[in-house]
Amino acid sequence: MADDHRARSWERRTEKPLLAASLVFFAAYALHVLAPGLPGPLHDLCTALALAAWALFAADYAVRLVHSGSVARFVRGHPLDTLVLLLPLLRPLRLVRLYNAVQQRRHRPRLSLYGRVMAYAGLSALLLGFAASLVVWQHERGAPGATIRSFGDSVWWACSTLTTTGYGDVAPVTPAGRVAAVALMACGVGLLSAVTGAFSSWLIRSFRTEDEKRPPEGA
Amino acid sequence: MADDHRARSWERRTEKPLLAASLVFFAAYALHVLAPGLPGPLHDLCTALALAAWALFAADYAVRLVHSGSVARFVRGHPLDTLVLLLPLLRPLRLVRLYNAVQQRRHRPRLSLYGRVMAYAGLSALLLGFAASLVVWQHERGAPGATIRSFGDSVWWACSTLTTTGYGDVAPVTPAGRVAAVALMACGVGLLSAVTGAFSSWLIRSFRTEDEKRPPEGA
Amino acid sequence: MADDHRARSWERRTEKPLLAASLVFFAAYALHVLAPGLPGPLHDLCTALALAAWALFAADYAVRLVHSGSVARFVRGHPLDTLVLLLPLLRPLRLVRLYNAVQQRRHRPRLSLYGRVMAYAGLSALLLGFAASLVVWQHERGAPGATIRSFGDSVWWACSTLTTTGYGDVAPVTPAGRVAAVALMACGVGLLSAVTGAFSSWLIRSFRTEDEKRPPEGA
Amino acid sequence: MADDHRARSWERRTEKPLLAASLVFFAAYALHVLAPGLPGPLHDLCTALALAAWALFAADYAVRLVHSGSVARFVRGHPLDTLVLLLPLLRPLRLVRLYNAVQQRRHRPRLSLYGRVMAYAGLSALLLGFAASLVVWQHERGAPGATIRSFGDSVWWACSTLTTTGYGDVAPVTPAGRVAAVALMACGVGLLSAVTGAFSSWLIRSFRTEDEKRPPEGA
User: Fold this and answer.
1) Which of A27, C2, C147, D82 is 20 to 30 Å apart from B138, CA to CA?
2) DSSP string, B10-58
């Protein structure tokens, strides 16, 4: 109980710094990928920032591991935290959660159930799609026989993948790019199907509600 | 309350003129895209009609903004109206709503819940698909390396996109065409998944009903 | 009421002959498409059989139209019958219905609800896919620039379309072939999404049932 | 009843040996496909192992057929067993079932309903995808005009097929490869849609639960 309380208090205090670090990591990685012609010092700064952010994540993970008392139990009980430590690009996913919590604290009118599912899953899919575009573009750039020849192509490819349209006019050809693509398909497609499922449910429910509140005779 | 009443009365009176204006806009835009060889005066007429229709939409938006009392609240509370002001091609979506209201006033037998979801979402998807075909064809025509070489190709592309089949034998290559394509994927795919979801629910329900009304023994 | 009884009695008596005629039509059309090198007389026989079958459908439609008393009401109330009159290839869809009715009369154990939805929608999708393969192959054969170069290609294309995979390695290029393709996408995709929806529901339900009937302690 | 008891006892005793045999079969087949340059004796060993494993499956099927008393009833009542006898690559699907049963015997905390559906269907889809990659690669290797030129291409193709993305940059061209592809589409797509369906339901439910357990005022 005391441990549990300490863990929660730690999480509350580290929430915002870690989120800032995750955005710094994301921005530094994006700059690294999208602006390969940066002068040396700026490039080194990007790398340093990304490493520093990642060191923060690792330190946070270590502190929580120690707090928990049992290494094996913590690793098994926090699979998402372990994943995010290995793939820090996914960390900003917590941004959506934070926004929701802030709205709640301010007593703002919140979205409906389906609205929140759509917002959360949609934003996560967007973030995953952007991260996958960056990773794929990093590996495909200059690969022989690549069909993805600009970052725009990479974003276009990510959009057609997330909706499972899959035109195939541009597609990754390198092994590393394809591994990132499979990860995007596995996660992103699941998230986006949640969005369309919630949208479909919301549409049916709103039609049903309209039926019920209609005045009984020819109003 | 008075404001609310005035707003509704305004909406009831402007419904039909605005719908007519939206159809004029749609037709003028379609003519502009599909018949580039029109003689100058006719082409100018198209442009004038489209602009006039859009001016009507803007005037309606402004009147309702003033009625509402608070600019910020109106913009936040009517996101769809703001979107439709910026993308007037989507305006005929209200046609479906109007048809439904007319049927109701005439005491016609209405479609079942799933039937209405399918009709509404299906018609909206059709309209979005046609609008996207127009926009994509306008931007792809004559683009170097384009695979969409006729309006028929553009419609074929829109159909394969809406069903998420995505053959990729024809696909937009220009940035503007791809932006329209992503919009179609985001909206249209959601709408069409609502159609298939409602169809699936309707099928399961009609099989269940058949079970219940079957005579008890070997009739 | 008397009309209703007469209509049902007519339907019961014409059910089997019309089904046989629909199979004859299907077979004659398939032979016409798949064996273009048939000697003249056999080819004429095929055409004659298909026309005779279609004449039967038209006669049945006319009789039921007369029975119903009101032309407008009959056409509005039987959209599927009107569609099937215009596209007789879809007629064997009734085969599935007949099989179900026969099983019921013989007091055979019937499939569960989800099983029947999957069987009915799956068989319908199969039939639609085969009919679309025939129509597309008829129009694509010999078209300049066609990627569908054999009936096998056409079947492969139909399979990849029905599952919305849409590789696009082969795809129709003629306007008529594309119209048939859009029809297949619209109907077949809906049917197949009903199959996967029912399968998903059945899987979740069977896992839930397994939970409930498990013995309370470590059996 | 006695027969039923005997059948269950047989199944319990043969469960593990048969599972081991199915893994041996899978491994021998994978080695046969992926290492065509094996020296003769090793290659013969693979073939012998696969045949021996298949003989075990056939013997098990025969014993259960005899136990059941009626051939026709057994074949009709165990369609999956008959399928698995003909396509032994699918046999390891029972691995998932065994893992579940073992967890249950050890009183381990089990996954939630949706978690189990996702785990079971996801693992099955993975296994099907890997088996299809092997079969397709075996038939496409060296085929004229093949776009699948390595086992990696085959796995990439299977991933894009399972998610119904279907880029089409690589796709089977041989009839045998296409038959395997259609089987993967039919089974794998159904399984994966069950995964996304369960994920979507789980997401909506977890958002709903969060609503209910939220403290009443600004905590």
Assistant:
1) C147
2) HHHHHHHHHHHHHHHHHHHHHHHHH-TT--HHHHHHHHHHHHHHHHHHH
